[in-house]
Fold this protein.
Amino acid sequence: MSASVLVGYATRYGSTQEVAEAVAATLRERGLIVDIWPMRKVRILDQCRAVVLGAPLFMFHWHKDALSFLSRHREALSARPVAIFALGPTKSPTDEKEWQTCRAQLDQDLAQFPWLRPAALELFGGKIDPAKLRFPENLFSKQIAKGMPASDIRDWTAIRAWASTLAATLQPAVSQANELV
Ligand SMILES: Cc1cc2nc3c(=O)[nH]c(=O)nc-3n(C[C@H](O)[C@H](O)[C@H](O)COP(=O)(O)O)c2cc1C
């Protein structure tokens, strides 16, 4: 049996799932065996040697499924390399202030898990389709953000480049495990 990498994702509107699929595809192209699952469906991590977790920021916080995944799997995650990505900024790839704010939200949530030492940590631009927002995001969009324009600033080149570098980072953990089986 070969050791595998788990790509776990959380999503509300699908854009993070698409990024997780692109990350998984790139890791596979680089020779890794990859399972991809919504985080809330993952029960045990025994079979995987490394974990990639991706989730969006919503209303100032990383997705609750991602935070609860970290709490639930502390022991297993402490024993494996863990890479993390988040989707957040939606205004522009160059709006430095927005990127810094989103990154601070992510860092603040991850600070609740001081045992976590990510092997890689990245923030990507996200996507908004205001017509598809459901409660409570539709209310947040109207009342707090005062309307959010449609946007999709996901940078697929940057996403694949990150995943490609990540494959090299995770390779030693996966190879070592394969030598043992
Ligand atoms: C109502 C609403 C609130 C959001 N709040 C934040 C936020 O506080 N911080 C952030 O970085 N991004 C925020 N975003 C942007 C989302 O992270 C982005 O749209 C992401 O791509 C959504 O992922 P999903 O399609 O996988 O659900 C918000 C988006 C919406 C629609």
Notes: The pocket of flavin mononucleotide is lined by residues 11-16, 56-60, 87-90, 102, 105, 126-128, 133, 137, 140-141, 148 (CB under 6 Å). Helices lie at 15-29, 64-72, 74-78, 96-110, 137-144, 156-180.
